[in-house]
Specification:
four-stranded antiparallel β-sheet, three-stranded antiparallel β-sheet, 34% helix
Length: 187
């Protein structure tokens, strides 16, 4: 790939912020969270804190194909992608966005969690204390990045998607073999 095949952009040219507010109970949308390790995570899989939720109307909808991030933990890589066929609800404090046309969502999502991206977030984060620095959408929008052309993004994104599927398959196999009722029978 030649350097001219890469284009410099600001992340504001790549993303459009969304803000679809929902009430999980009324709209019958599951409440999810966001972790650095796993991205979007079902609340019950991580911990159940629904008893702490006082308001039902301060949640954002993350539609299929949307990207969500936690401004307080962006410098740690707290980014998730909704690759499911259903919408979920997340904290109203999170930022939701969608990749604009001619940007491959899977490539972009993978890049957003890369060490290179995290270094950029740390450079542009605002806040006087390191542990309280944030990357709000207006700040994210001005970060300059260099991406390959769309066709190359699709190829790279597809490659990473295949790797993620392979990792998921191996994790399921590992979990199966770790079950206490599993017996290995040799011949």
């Amino acid at each position: 790939m030649k350097p001219k095949d890469w284009e410099q952009r600001k992340l504001g040219d790549v993303f459009e912020q969304t803000s679809n507010l929902v009430n999980p109970k009324e709209d019958e949308i599951e409440l999810w969270s966001l972790t650095v390790e796993d991205g979007l995570t079902k609340k019950s899989d991580r911990y159940n804190r629904e008893f702490l939720v006082k308001k039902d109307d301060n949640f954002k909808e993350v539609r299929p194909g949307d990207i969500v991030y936690n401004p307080m933990n962006m410098t740690l890589g707290a980014v998730g992608y909704n690759g499911m066929a259903k919408s979920v609800a997340v904290s109203g404090y999170y930022t939701t966005m969608v990749a604009k046309e001619n940007y491959d969502t899977y490539y972009i999502n993978t890049w957003l969690k890369s060490p290179q991206a995290i270094r950029l977030y740390r450079t542009y984060a605002t806040g006087s204390l390191i542990e309280k620095q944030r990357v709000q959408f207006p700040t994210l929008s001005i970060i300059p990045v260099t991406f390959p052309k769309y066709e190359e993004q699709i190829k790279i994104g597809s490659y990473f998607h295949s790797i993620d599927n392979l990792i998921t398959l191996h994790q399921r196999q590992t979990d199966f073999y770790k079950k206490p009722n599993f017996y290995f029978i040799s011949s």
